[in-house]
Amino acid sequence: MPFRDVLGMTLPTIPLPDFFDDLDASLAHLWRLLEDGPRLRRNAFHMPALATVDADGCPQVRTIVLREAERRTGILRFHCDRRSRKAAEIADSGRAALHGYDSASKVQIRVSGPATLHTDDALADAAWDGSMTMSRVCYGVAPGPGTELASGEGYSLPETDAAIAAGRPNFCAVQVSATRLEFLFLDRRGHRRAAWKRDGDGWAGTWLAP
Asked: Can you give the pTM of this predicted structure?
């Protein structure tokens, strides 16, 4: 039989996804979307929002590029300038949250947990080596990110290979170790929302009211 919404309107009989009433399948779908994010530029989770808290206790949100997501470890990685406010806020609080929403599939994902900065270690070196030149240029901007300017053009970017390489000390790889995940699927036949907490090497999940 066709589904009807609260107004009694007949809804199209589009099959519900396999994860609709399956917690394990929902978790697997969540991680599949996150793991696709770094490699698929058109994926909605390629550029999630990062949330931190500043020194005054005020929330701060901005968009970042997701560079890595790994279900086995629960770690997500992105890069930033160590001179930036988000780097300072993560250093102070040791925590961060990420949020993404795919309007096409009507899926929202929220991730939160401890966050660590890597600037002068092997992880940071590997992340820098794996970055494209156009990305490395950003870390040579002068003055540093967030500095007030007399005019919109009052900053400079490195133009030579040596100048770009000189920005390496400003480069920072950030890892968020997910300890809580939330998944929301929107559908007129009934929304599905779930949450998981890190439980050793696995996840303990529950359905939530949407």
From this structure: 0.90
